Queue: 2 jobs
Job 1
Amino acid sequence: MRINEERLRSRMDAINRIAVTEEGGMMRLALSDADKTARDLLKSWIKEAGMEVRIDDLGTIQGYLPGTDPNSLPIGVGSHMDTQPNGGRYDGLFGVMSGLEAVCTLIDNGITMKSPLVVIDWTNEEGARFVPPMLASGVVAGNFDVNWVYAKEDKNGIKYVDELTRIGYMGSKSNRFEKAKAYIEPHIEQGPILDQEGYEFGIVTGALGITGLDVKIKGETNHAGTTPMRNRKDALMVAAEAMLELRKKTIEYGDPAVITMGIISASPASKNIVPGEVYFSIDMRHDNDEALTRLEQDVREIIQKVCSDNCAESHIERYWRADPVHFDEGIINASEKVANKLKIRAKRIYSGAGHDAVFINRIIPTGMLFVPSIKGMSHCPQEDTKWEDIVTGTEMLTELLIKIDK
Amino acid sequence: MRINEERLRSRMDAINRIAVTEEGGMMRLALSDADKTARDLLKSWIKEAGMEVRIDDLGTIQGYLPGTDPNSLPIGVGSHMDTQPNGGRYDGLFGVMSGLEAVCTLIDNGITMKSPLVVIDWTNEEGARFVPPMLASGVVAGNFDVNWVYAKEDKNGIKYVDELTRIGYMGSKSNRFEKAKAYIEPHIEQGPILDQEGYEFGIVTGALGITGLDVKIKGETNHAGTTPMRNRKDALMVAAEAMLELRKKTIEYGDPAVITMGIISASPASKNIVPGEVYFSIDMRHDNDEALTRLEQDVREIIQKVCSDNCAESHIERYWRADPVHFDEGIINASEKVANKLKIRAKRIYSGAGHDAVFINRIIPTGMLFVPSIKGMSHCPQEDTKWEDIVTGTEMLTELLIKIDK
């Protein structure tokens, strides 16, 4: 079924004109004035489509279209409209706008559904203004307490609850999207796989689990001029050796295992002192719970071995663990059938990043659909997706809603 | 010739009781009240020995003992009494006190010298309060301008010149130690070589040259979850590989070549972002000018090769270059003869650290003598030297002064 390309494009353009950085990036921090302007536009389009606007107590917006079967649970589709401080054009916005466009296309074509359809814009997905991310879906899924979220402050000390009230989007708890037949989140991949391998579309089977470690390596602080090489216990050299071993081991695990050392520091941090201590962070991810546990074990053993080989000591602390998420098999299979029917080159893929769908999956059968990100660019002005992939993804979504409704 | 061990020990103890940190370290920052107390004690002992006290316009103290030959240039001996914030018992102090003890021993034994003898306490050698180090000897040697030094401020904004005046040690330019037959600086090794190899004594042939580089490596910033390992240009992995190669290459150069990466940072410094850029510092040292130049060339080539192998870019900037220093051959040979005569197990050795002697070597024939540092500990409360090595070093110095005078 053909969507209204022009409508989809002009609506996305309208949102993406609201707040643009010097580098051409998007700047719609959650609950900011820019976010309010985007919300107001979304609300107007929901009304234009003849849908009902519902706002919950986290500020999440829902466009509600009743179904023909009074006993059928709704099908939700959406994502978020907030962005990183200098974010991309389609991250989040694609999910909300493709959901709205799919519903509008169904209406335009006079297709009625048994299930109510709900187009959703979750509040503060990015976590760029209020930390951590996915605060609204986290409350709905039972991960966070609403008052804990209300008390969250941005870097200027402004509270979530105050901004929510200020921009006029404090709604009712009874509007929370808690019970549904399905929740579908279309999103950009944010990685390079689909683009690189020539796929038009990704059927997301789950999200990688994450283990985060803080690592300290202790060697010996020494004078950079008076300590011969053979007498050093240079903590940075030990860390360098360990980090390369960790990368090698992770590559042995194969896709989708990844490991990232994002932060590093040496102390005492003087140009002419051999560093006696080094800190670095580890973020490792895998789609398989058992493999993620095994990887953590391997990582710990490698660090300990490299340290003991070099007469250094290590201290490892786990700061984070998120189990791998597996999306609903029914939705995955339905997506695959629709893709085959539409002759779309689709690949089963994992999400490496967090999404509202990851939380919502705990309470509602959930699925995600990816469109390719050109060169995998994400959270930057260079983030882009081919327009034909945006269109294909939205048409695929439309067909999927029909299939799930059956 | 036997020195007066008891006098040497009690005088050192008196200085080392002035300001002691909780960890048992010394805290005599240059021109502080603690430094003044140490200076006042030194002055009293100079007078007690019948020597004349001279202060120059940098605050450097000299105890002057006339010689029998009115045409002979003086022989200087000394070091510094200022310390690091939590420094050791013998760093600097050994040079001043062994010099004083040697002269007192000569006087006690009725030995007259042709040359005047000058015991010296240089101001602000450590550079712990006023940066950079060796400010007073640097002016005398012509490296620094005196007004530039006067204007130097400590971290509280207090000027060198104001503190010098406040503690009453502003002297006269005409008292600068500029012309001399020789300058000898006894010092602790601050490295582990003598201790490890079982020597009692080090005859310092020179000081290592230093080349300092700032290195930036540029890869690509990426999402830690969505970017497969094979798609990464992780700047920290490139840096780790380069640093290990640099260490390997430097070890191939053999002693006394050393390389230190003391500071490192990754950006954007987020636990879940693959670092797109890494900065690290390099401090490399060698006793041979040509070899130091070659090492720098090798280091640059290694970084460039590792970067190009990994599709990364590097930017390398030299922030420091100090040529290797070679001390006076006559003093080195004289020291060796004295050591042989006294049957002291002495080793020719390089200084990896900077010293006032390194500057003074530019204007006066200069030599340095090292006593062993136990386990090479330096700039910390654990710094230590066996008492018998302190005594041997002082006796050796006494004999060397006699030899140089002849």
Job 2
Amino acid sequence: MSETRIITISREFGSGGRTIGKMVADRLGLKYYDKELVQAIAEESGFDESYVEEAGEHAPGKSWLAFALGAQSAATPGKGLSMNDFLWTIQYRVINEIAEKEPCVIVGRCADYILRERSDCFDVFIHASTDKKAERIVRLYGESEAAPEKRLADKDKKRKVFYKHYTGREWGMSQNYHMSLDSGYLGIEECVRIIIDASGMKKSE
Amino acid sequence: MSETRIITISREFGSGGRTIGKMVADRLGLKYYDKELVQAIAEESGFDESYVEEAGEHAPGKSWLAFALGAQSAATPGKGLSMNDFLWTIQYRVINEIAEKEPCVIVGRCADYILRERSDCFDVFIHASTDKKAERIVRLYGESEAAPEKRLADKDKKRKVFYKHYTGREWGMSQNYHMSLDSGYLGIEECVRIIIDASGMKKSE
């Protein structure tokens, strides 16, 4: 195991993976990339942040398709490259640039795959039972018209399809990560502790 | 997270999961079930140990089928129950009995699934890259006619099909386990340490 400089965190919606990533970064004094990544990709691509947020991890739905078809001629840099592919290439480059720059924690956006050739990444997947995730999203984001179980399934299905499309891998297969943790069973705090411990990283003074 | 009494270890062939399970059991002073489980199932079923070893985790191949067809009338306790199903029911009962009896480590044999209703199990999956596993099986079991990559693929394919058939789950999906670890990346010793630490179990005096 080489010395870890980067922790990537992939996560099921509602598993608390984002919170865990932030806590790991805070305790190790590392730069944290989540929304910051969306901003960087939005800047580089010229797209709106909310659009990048939606399209960078999620498989295109109907509304995206309609949007893409309308905007394709203007936004596409090369013939035959779809807007989603264009965003992917930018996401790919931005994540590689970030990884070169400094030790950090990166949440989501297929960073585990994008940085797979590096030997200084520790790749973690966070998941939880549907019950635990449903309880969490209702507590954090409130009720909505759709049942929480449906909101969870919809969001993760999009991530799964996107991941498969761009990486050829099955999202959530333990073999894609160095460590996978059930945050509902272990608890958020315990996951943070286990990840920091296993990464071998220390807070830089 | 309830107090853990049982650690189940599922593992890819060649990942060192069996060694890890044994080390965890030794350090925690727990009873270890692997071959011992095969013996218990063999005793209860009346089948030969080597047969139980092969059939209890692996999807039936041709030789099994030939054997099963020949032996079915004598061995099958009820009409319509295949010999594989018969062994499964015994495996199911034996593993549940063991779990009731005392704290322990159980390696393989779908124990994660069989004990899924219990709240005192900590379920771990151990995997590694093909390179690391190939290096390990050649070191431990020697060369054979088939390339190590093929031996790995064959063995894990059987486990995968068996697991899917009896549990309805995808083998190796991180969601089936509380923790999944890449032993090739982390190292055997580090996996042992992480599992003991995360389980919250202490060596009983």
